[in-house]
Design goal:
The chain has a domain at about 110-230: ATPase, nucleotide binding domain (Nucleotidyltransferase, domain 5, 2-Layer Sandwich), CATH 3.30.420.40. It is α/β, with parallel strands linked by helices. It is globular and about 55 Å long. Helix 3 crosses helix 7 (about 225-235) and helix 4 crosses helix 5 (about 175-195). Strand 2 (about 10-15) and strand 3 form a beta hairpin. The model has no long low-confidence stretch (mean pLDDT about 95). A five-stranded mixed β-sheet has the order 3-2-1-4-5, with helices on one face. Strands 10-9-8-11-12 form a five-stranded mixed β-sheet, sandwiched between helices. It contains seven helices and twelve strands.
């Protein structure tokens, strides 16, 4: 039994599976401000054989997670991006500097398909990473996530609110204009990255803003809720 953990910039996600391709028996998520709840969440977990952690958080957050894991009695594997793993060749100039969540997502998608594809993680930041048919990571883009874009407008302008508008082709109020503009920016970046791979390239997307972004993309994208966790489970197998 594997416990896979994904520690992001604002949330921690976890899942328990028998094997990387078996699906998750149980999953959970919580804000980083709520890490004290982890001991209770994990107290009733089944017997584990491995624990894998992919973290892009700071050391203070990681230490709190390590403390919550200590009663389980299994040393966790704190993952880092590798030059090669699970059929993926890491083409970053300095492979270790590729975000481990991005690397885990690449590994998860490589296990699902062999063709050219774009992997999008839509969280606090949005990443769009290109993976070739032979498993080569070709590079990727990082941009502010959907909510971060909207908060930036609210925080740095006098009259633009942090409003929850609706996407419109022709927005006619401020809330809709902000929502539509930020979604168009997300979609535009993703579409440009996918164009570099060609019109037949698949697109896989995960993260909290994925559902909103998928609706405005100019091509189909496959949503996978726990893409990073799938990759973590494979990397510790």
């Amino acid at each position: 039994m594997i416990l896979a953990i994904d520690i992001g910039n604002t949330r921690l996600k976890w899942g328990v599976c028998d094997a990387p391709n078996s699906g998750f028996r149980a999953v959970g998520r919580l804000a980083l401000e709520e890490l004290d709840k982890l001991r209770d969440d994990w107290r009733s977990l089944p017997a584990l054989s491995r624990i894998g952690v992919a973290s892009v958080a700071d050391s203070a957050v990681n230490e709190r997670v390590a403390a919550a894991l200590a009663p389980i009695g299994i040393a966790p594997q704190w993952l880092a991006s590798q030059p090669r793993a699970c059929g993926v060749t890491n083409g970053y100039e300095r492979p270790a500097e590729l975000g481990v969540d991005r690397f885990a997502a690449l590994v998860a998608v490589r296990a699902r398909q062999a063709g050219d594809c774009l992997i999008v993680l839509a969280g606090t930041a949005t990443t769009a990473d290109m993976l070739s048919a032979d498993g080569g990571f070709l590079g990727g883009a990082i941009l502010p996530g959907l909510d971060l874009m909207k908060r930036s407008l609210a925080n740095h302008t006098a009259r633009l609110p942090f409003a929850q508008g609706a996407y419109r082709e022709t927005p006619r109020n401020t809330a809709d204009a902000i929502e539509s503009g930020c979604l168009n920016a997300q979609a535009g970046a993703i579409e440009r990255m996918r164009a570099r791979l060609g019109p037949e390239a698949a697109c896989w997307i995960s993260g909290g803003a994925a559902a909103a972004i998928v609706t405005v993309l100019a091509f189909p994208a496959t949503f996978v809720e726990h893409l990073v966790l799938e990759g973590v489970a494979r990397l510790v197998s």
